[in-house]
Amino acid sequence: MRLSTVILPIHRWSQGGRDAWLRAEQLGFHAAYTYDHLSWRTFRDGPWFGAVPTLTAAAGATTRMRLGTLVTSPNFRHPVTLAKDLITLDDVSGGRVTLGIGAGGNGFDATALGQEPWTPRERADRFGEFLPLLDRLLTEPAVTHAGTHYSADEARNIPGCVQRPRLPFAVAATGPRGLKLAARYGQAWVTTGDPKLFESGTPAESLEALRGQITKLGTACAEIGRDAGELDKILLTGFTPERSGPLESLDAFVDFAGRHFALGFTEIVLHAPIPGSDFAADEKVFEQIATEGLAQLGS
Fold first, then answer.
1. 194, 206 in Cβ contact below 8 A?
2. I need a labelling partner for 196 at 20 to 30 A (CA). Which of 62, 157, 240, 247 fits?
3. Alpha helix ranges (H) inside 44-160
4. Percent helix / strand / coil, the chain, rounded to 5
């Protein structure tokens, strides 16, 4: 059982940004992630910094905790340039980086480069080409690829990742095509639950939906002869019917986490509290959960 956190990139590094990452390590989180967006939802009109530079700074400020994105997508990324950034970040961090990656959605990132938003099929098509190419770019010293959506011409990535054969992928997926990619390329799988249940679903319905997703992941793994137990299973909280409920008290967290660990999840990710937002929570309770939550589950 692992407990991790998400730190949104909303603070200047000298005005709370650095302190947030140091605090996460001091609290003992397994990993601290950040969103890889150009802007996001209600935070669009406020400060929002880039994921890769933020993680690079965090890598220099911390020593033990894993770092990563939840999640990167093709919306404004290209595999060639992303691979170079990731190899550099993995080097700076001493091999502590996990790439959370998914197909993306129709948020602000989908049109920020001036393009029309892709349909779900187009996003799936692009992701189906993006991920295998990124895998090659991070494991081979030189890559040439002529694809429908992405190309590379003798793209060099020497010396490669510190982590071998490459840094781990945590693939966000719920549909059949995405789950097949997770089964083939992922070292972990990420979900936020069933979005259809967020507004009016119940915790019991959410748990059943998550059970179904895990079953489908197992089927996708079995189809290629892979043991689904090899993949870590990560739940990013805040988007199930419980919303911020797990952060209301230590007991509430233990109840929530216990049900989801029993389902097969190996890592639960909590948003670091942000006052006045959807992620508002009591700082003291958050710290108590970070330092005592897993011990309570194990007792």
1. yes
2. 247
3. 51-61, 79-92, 120-139
4. 45, 15, 40
3-class SS at 250?
Answer: helix
d(CA 217, CA 244): 26
Q: 149-159: per-residue pLDDT in tens?
A: 999 999 999 99
Q: Supply 66's token pair.
A: 């894993």
Token couple for 84: 């170079």
65 in Cβ contact with 101 (< 8 Å): no
Using a CB cutoff of 8 Å and minimum separation of 24, what contacts does 196-205 make?
Answer: 197/240, 197/241, 198/239, 198/240, 198/241, 198/243, 200/241, 201/240, 201/241, 202/241, 203/240, 203/241, 203/242, 205/241
Largest separation between any pair of C-alpha atoms in the chain: 55
Q: Per-residue pLDDT tens for 107-139?
A: 999 999 999 999 999 999 999 999 999 999 999
